[in-house]
Every structure is written in C-alpha cells, then in structure tokens.
Amino acid sequence: ADLENRLVVVVANLKSKKLAGFPSQGMVLCATDTACRVALVDPPSDAEPGDRVEFPGLGPEPPATDKQCDKHKLFAKAQPHFRVDAAHVVTYKDRPFAIPGRSGPCTAPLNDVTHVS
To answer: What is the mean pLDDT of the chain?
Structure first.
C-alpha cells in the first residue's frame, strides 16, 4: 500500500536478479535511521515517471548498462556516499539528488539516517 499511486526514486540498470520469481533490474531507494525505521526516498512533488536524477556539478552521464553496472560495481562504489542532511535532502558526495527542471531535491523524511540504499 505504501507504493500504490506514489512516485519513488529507483536505481535502475542493476544486474538482473529474481525477486518473488520475477527478474528485477532496479531497486527502490530508501533511507534507514538509527531506530531502524525505513522510509522511501521522495522525488520532488512535481517529478514525473521517468525523470532522471542528476548531481549538480557532476554533469549528466549516459546511463550505464546492467553489464557495466555489474562489471564496475557502480552502485557498490556510489552507495557509501549517499547521505541525508539535516534538511532531509538526499545527497551523493554532498551534492543533492536533483531532477533538472523540477521544484526541489529528493528527500527522506527521517532524522539520524544511518544509510541510504
């Protein structure tokens, strides 16, 4: 019910794995706090399905294929740098998860976040 009629941030192009008997190549991004509460990472309120997250100052990169993501361990290398700041903004190396042309950054409604994955 938490996902019904809701936009989420998805990490795409991951190596295909079976999930409930179906192949999955993505992961819904969530934040976890010190009390082990989990919350979905929220895109800006005016985001639309298919919008792509970018990081200011890093420039847009063409999407990596699932084979490139797996071979170079791209998610495993990036994920330790995901954080949530005091304003609840989700960041990568101190740059907000942003969707160009949208009203604000991606956020997580938790305090004392231990990790984002």
So the answer is: 91
1 pLDDT above the threshold of 80: no
- pLDDT on residue 3: 84
What are the strands of the beta sheet with 82-84, ordered from one edge?
82-84, 90-92, 95-96
Q: 3-class SS at 84?
A: strand
Extract the tokens encoding 38: 């989990």
DSSP state, 89? B
Q: pLDDT at residue 28 above 80?
A: yes
Give the 3-state secondary structure of residue 66: helix
Question: What is the maximum alpha-carbon separation in the chain?
Answer: 40
Coil, helix or strand for 31?
Answer: strand
Contacts of 94 (CB under 8 A, 6+ apart): 83
Question: For the chain, what is the total number of helices (H) and then of strands (E)?
Answer: 2, 10
Helix (H) or strand (E) segment spanning residue 11: strand 10-11
Q: How many CB atoms lie within 10 A of CB 25?
A: 15
Is pLDDT at 29 greater than 80 in this prediction?
Answer: yes
